[in-house]
Amino acid sequence: MPSSKITGVGMYVPEDVVTNDDLSKLMDTNDQWIVERTGIKQRRFFKEGVDSVAKMAAKAAQIALDRAGKKAEDVDFIVFATLSSDYNFPGSGVLLQRKLPFRNIGAIDVRGQCSGFVYALSIADQFIKTGMYKTILVVGSEVQSNIFEMSNRGRNMAVIFGDGAGAAVVEATNEPGKGILTTKLHSDGRFAEELYQENPGSRKKDRITAEMFEKGEFLPYMNGKLVFMNALRFFPEVVREALAEFNFKDSDLDLLIPHQANARITAAIQKEMNLPPEKIVSNIERYGNTTAASVPLALCEAWETGRIKDGDLVALAAFGSGFMWASALIRW
């Protein structure tokens, strides 16, 4: 049975850099307040007509394909992770499929939110291990800057999130002990409403009403304290679950790439797992929380800067809305 291996990574972020000082002109906040609570200094916001979820994905995908030495025609399948699809339907996977010279291959969207890319990677891994496909493009892309209200009412979440895309080419390999060793996926829907966007949705007869806008019911909601507490528990737990399958210890990791939710969460994970700074990736200060794009952006930057080397043991981990959490253990 073949294994699956990441052979190319790519990323794209919009040109527009939005600093904390920029946001302070729109709402009652300041750089110190945001940095102390999140670690974020700036983020990228998309430009209408230039960027979109699918357009950004296509740019990241092309870079990943080039680095893998592949053409779009070589790809057998697309797994696209996003919570902010270009349209309510169809999904952004088919929009990406038409942007590059792909064949008429299949494309599925994964609604895994912050854990979306790791879930998507796991799906690709299973397709390759069964022999159904040999080359799969896995993407995480988000436009979130237009989901939030840039006002005092939307402030607590508006300062956290940004836009961007990351992609990975996943191929079949027969190299022993190389590639994606295992993935672990979990969820607990009891906490679905602790981090969610209630409206518009299909539960109500009228999906969009003036009352929803007046009450702010279209804005995302997060129980920050509860999310923070659960993230501190499940991040280390799901990484250790993957390590334990191969009798590895925390210290055997060469690099941990967590979802960039909050710099304080990343610091707490580092402390809990007793990892030196060089073994954990954090780039939230420059991009904010990019949800499904977060892990592939961090993965791509880590590879570009030489932090990932051949033979390294690398873990990806994510936790977020759902609640959903996941990990992937990779021998690079």
Query: Secondary-structure element sequence?
Result: EEHHEHEHEHEHEEEHEHEHHHEE
CA-based shape: globular
Poorly predicted segments: none
The number of E-state strands comes to 13
Could you say what the CATH architecture of the largest domain is? 3-Layer(aba) Sandwich
Largest sheet: 5 strands, mixed
- In percent terms, what proportion of residues is strand? 15-25%
Rg (C-alpha, Å): 19 Å
Q: Tell me, rounded to a whole number, the average pLDDT.
A: 97
Secondary-structure-based class equals: alpha/beta
Ends: how far apart? 18 Å
* Overall helicity: 25-40%
Strand order of the largest sheet: 1-7-6-4-5
The fold-level CATH name of the largest domain is Peroxisomal Thiolase, Chain A, domain 1
CATH top level of the largest domain is Alpha Beta
Please report the number of helical segments: 11
The name of the CATH superfamily of the largest domain reads Thiolase/Chalcone synthase
- How many structural domains can be distinguished in the coordinates? 2
Describe the 3D structure.
This protein is an alpha/beta fold and 332 residues long. The protein folds into two domains: 3-173, Peroxisomal Thiolase, Chain A, domain 1, CATH 3.40.47.10; 179-331, Peroxisomal Thiolase, Chain A, domain 1 (3-Layer(aba) Sandwich). The chain has helices at 20-24, 31-38, 53-68, 92-99, 116-129, 155-158, 210-215, 224-244, 263-272, 284-287, 294-304; strands at residues 3-12, 16-19, 42-45, 77-81, 106-110, 135-142, 164-173, 179-187, 195-196, 221-222, 255-258, 313-320, 324-331. The strands form four sheets. A five-stranded mixed β-sheet has the order 1-7-6-4-5, with helices on both faces. Strands 8-13-12-11 form a four-stranded mixed β-sheet, sandwiched between helices. The chain has a two-stranded antiparallel sheet with strand order 2-3. Helix 4 (92-99) links the parallel strand 4 (77-81) and strand 5 (106-110). Helix 3 packs across helix 4 (92-99) and helix 8 (224-244) packs parallel to helix 9. It is globular, with a radius of gyration of 19 Å. The model has no long low-confidence stretch (mean pLDDT 97).
